[in-house]
Design a protein that fits this description.
Layout: H1 6-15, H2 22-29, E1 33-34, E2 40-43, H3 45-53, H4 56-67, E3 83-84, E4 91-96, E5 99-106, E6 109-117
Parallel strand pairs: 2-6
Antiparallel strand pairs: 1-2, 3-4, 4-5, 5-6
């Protein structure tokens, strides 16, 4: 698997997950994904593993946003509770339902890093 590019490894990993509707997202994951804003979207392996571990209700909500609705937003600042993490300037987080999602933004590349259930207070 080393000879494949980074995106291909993520694509192969995604196909091994049972909660994903494969045919719906297969064509998007096989190519570089761009939003109307011109951003390139990538998915970290840890994000895909976290997604697999979510409860069914949260999984459907997060999956619908990440693979469909995210491509329709105009500004990242419009995301719910969008905040910068630390002082690095590249790490951010936002919420979808009961989940926290972390992003790495470097120029025109947006990488989904983790998706975790919100801690109960």
């Amino acid at each position: 698997m080393r000879h494949f590019g980074r995106g291909k490894r993520h694509f192969i990993l995604l196909l091994s997950f049972s909660p994903f509707p494969y045919a719906k997202h297969q064509s998007r994951l096989n190519q570089k994904i761009r939003t109307p804003m011109g951003l390139e979207i990538r998915y970290e392996r840890s994000f895909l593993l976290d997604l697999k571990r979510l409860e069914k209700a949260s999984l459907k909500e997060v999956q619908a946003f990440v693979f469909e609705d995210f491509f329709k937003i105009n500004q990242l600042q419009d995301l719910s509770e969008f905040r910068q993490l630390g002082s690095s300037g590249i790490l951010y987080r936002f919420t979808i339902g009961k989940c926290l999602i972390s992003l790495e933004i470097m120029g025109r590349i947006v990488k989904f890093l983790r998706v975790l259930p919100k801690p109960e207070l």
